[in-house]
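Usage

Read records sequentially. Each one opens with the input sequence:
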Amino acid sequence: MTRIVLLPGDGIGPEIVGAARRLLDSVGEFDYDERLMGGASIDAHGIALTDEVLAACESADAVLLGAVGGPKWDTTDPDAPRPEQGLLGLRKGLGLFANMRPVRPSPALAAASPMRPEVIEGTDLLVVRELTGGIYFGEKTRTEDSASDQCLYTTAEVERIARIGFEAAARRRGHLTSVDKANVLETSRLWREVVSGLAADYPDVELDHLLVDNAAMQLVANPSAFDVIVTENMFGDILSDEAAMLTGSLGMLPSASLGDGGPGVFEPVHGSAPDIAGRGIANPLATFLSAAMLLRDGLGMPEEATRVETAVDRVLESGLRTPDIAGGAAAERDADTEEMTAAVLDAMSI
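and closes with the structure output:
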């Protein structure tokens, strides 16, 4: 039987992953293996990701992750364990070098977006973020009065993520935007040279380059102009969160982290939201849409994935909202996690 490792994590993670498990049960039979990661693992084992949990993920067909982190584990001590180390270790251990974050604002949520409806109308973009290189993984130093973080990329690392971007653009509308800081950073100059060198292999894809500061501006000025954005780790981290707000809430954005043939990790982009944990009001929709990506990209079940996505659209069109996407709507339209989950499950049966 297909095995899915569940990593609920911290904060609202257990609530949204529990809801997503019910959703997955409505489309098929799966063998679940629930494990600790992040702050919950630090509390239980002293580290954010144990070897046993990583091994379980390596042998799974797919991994569904909730969220990690929270103020309980915040520290400036470089030797103290941090929940985010579990996420970075999982990506590195599974060889997950490509993070895919689709951004398609729902017309039903136009009022929740901080952008004017005419600005976001027609937006349908995909951010492809490199996950295992760059400044997050470079050598780090710290003295009493200085610190450094090395940003390192190899030609091979840039080429493999760039090909993911080109291939995604070829399946979509044929436009790839590569984002860098080539006017300042040597790593970005390498990035631009490698990406440009691959363009001839994809004659049906139009390639352009943007500096990251200009890309950040264009994302809010003219988001519908983008098709696929490919960029390095830190830039992708920032730009994908910015793009998420076009939807009105981080609670609406799914993601998939993929590698070369092994299990992928599927997770909502939002954080652990410790301020609302345990209150039953967390928005499960980004996790549901991540489960849809798991079905399509992780398990080869596209019809079931489409059922989930269609059900989410139907529920949003009906006017049901969790507080984070209420957008000033009347209070009677607000729903808690359970009500939203039940509504999507009902819509799945239509």
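Summary fields computed downstream for this record:
- The first strand starts at residue 3 and ends at 9.
- Residues 114-247 form a domain with the Isopropylmalate Dehydrogenase fold (CATH 3.40.718.10).
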